[in-house]
């Protein structure tokens, strides 16, 4: 008999924290086993292409180290002592400890903590339903998107832009601040199509020679945190050379005359001194986009993860506005489509029970929260009980030593619901085994594209594994809130209600069609009838303190970071952690191609391809410090120090160090990871972690 005779094909969506949200075709070998995973060719954005790590998804689903049974800590925290515990007993224990915490310190002593390990709206956001019903501490989601989204909306008034598929119709594709080959492979699909079909030029702006830079016709390698200076020089040249679209500026922007006057001193020579680029490189870039109205700016997240990140995003976004690129198909800018979905998640999240008087705790400042910082605790009680889903804070969060120290508190109860024994799970009191996206129903939206996608349950999960939705529902029963709106429904019922409440047809239609394309028409996407401010004008002069934003902190938190130091016009905001005599290097921590945050770091294929954690240093710096390739070096700052091997590499400019990937802490010699060195201080104006903005020293270990 043909061994492949029983293989069937299933359709789903990639659940991971990536803007592409790829439509997937999955081989189903039997009721519990998947095989190959491919991109859906008939999805116009995925276009049959997915990243290598998701193509190997069976390696993750069927990994021999996957958690399969609930485990309770035995002995001291973090020492690796566990005993098996039945599911009912485990959930009873969580409920018991939550009730105890509430009895001692009030409901705010419990902090449900989650993020984007799955982007499914039911399995990710359902924990908020329990949070609001029980009046547990709120979470301010600051860690990933805030700086980028704030900077984009500061200009357009809306988190949406040009259809990303229009890259294929561009004459110049500018990939700014994202290593798309590694992190958003579909960006490259459409950019390369433009090159093949139209002879388009690809410009890549980044801080080191990564895989995307190698695809560029023009590669601009600048110092971290200086993107705003480059943007200003491009606009200076536009006004100087007459390539600024003055008619467009007069009709569609707030203060073009003020911007031009401001930019008078922001010359290519000025920007070269800040960015480390050559004047001729800046002039060539300005000329290229000045001559090509169909210039598409694909603005990523990476360059916004600086303390001046919101300003940098706004400045880069201002460039296609000055040139009038928005007028043209294949021109303009795109970052994220967050504003186009109009999803009503009130039932999934239980927003009817939300009390504005309950405090918000900053997700990025979990270390300060768990070590008792009064400001981080918003003047409230200590956090003494947590459940963690979809995230790995002991590895991914800044100021890692404080995070770990907080998680090790004996008076803190932590339950972690996970697929693998992550760094956070290792420090927990209780570990609950979680299902994968192939084993439940959920709905997804593509931040980097325009499709709503259904992700159906394709296989059965192991008998001893449970979904996020199951855990939330069972805890609600034990904690006396299962009668609240949103509880007692299946995943499919919640998805159907979400769609209908949001103005779409129900789940039956989505399941049949597999996805819905909700890309706005050209006039809306290109802001042809005006930007999304009351006067219809693009804002060159943002109201940083007063503007609405997709993720503005609640009033109880107020503004965050040094808002008063943000510039009135696009500029280089000198808010970054500059190198000094004691810390002569700038450190950036971009993603590795084979990992996605801390996901996939457990799979053999990804780890073999990545090799080992390394610190990349320019040969000139290594020679000056008498450091040889491959030696152990210690790297540190005021937050701590770690050890890893040195890789001498001219990928970055002198004075800039690169460490790729979020390796498990145990992959490092001392058991501490790269986020020991990153800061959790909120960036202006609305918070966010500046992961790529660190000054450090280096010495032989």
Features:
single chain; 701 residues; alpha/beta; Dimethylsulfoxide Reductase, domain 2; Barwin-like endoglucanases; 6-stranded mixed β-sheet; 25 helices; globular; Anaerobic selenocysteine-containing dehydrogenase; metal-binding; molybdopterin cofactor binding
Ordered list of secondary-structure elements with their pairings:
Layout (H helix, E strand, L loop, with lengths): L7 E6 L9 E8 L2 E7 L12 H4 L1 H5 L9 E3 L8 E3 L2 H19 L4 E5 L6 H5 L1 H8 L3 E3 L5 H11 L15 E5 L3 H4 L1 H14 L2 E6 L11 E4 L5 H15 L4 H7 L3 H7 L5 H8 L3 H13 L3 E5 L9 H15 L8 E3 L11 H4 L10 E3 L3 H5 L14 E5 L3 H4 L3 H8 L5 E6 L4 H4 L3 E4 L8 E4 L5 E5 L12 H11 L12 H11 L5 H7 L1 E3 L4 H4 L59 E4 L15 H7 L4 E3 L1 H7 L6 E6 L2 E9 L7 E3 L35 E7 L1
Describe the protein in words:
With 701 residues, this protein is of the alpha/beta class. Among the domains are: 157-338 and 529-565, 3-Layer(aba) Sandwich (Dimethylsulfoxide Reductase, domain 2); 585-700, Beta Barrel (Barwin-like endoglucanases), CATH 2.40.40.20. It contains 25 helices and 25 strands. The strands form six sheets. The chain has a six-stranded mixed β-sheet with strand order 5-4-16-15-14-6. A six-stranded mixed β-sheet has the order 21-23-22-25-20-24. α19 links the parallel β15 (413-418) and β16. α9 crosses α13 (279-291). The longest helix has 19 residues, at 87-105. The radius of gyration is 25 Å and the shape is globular.
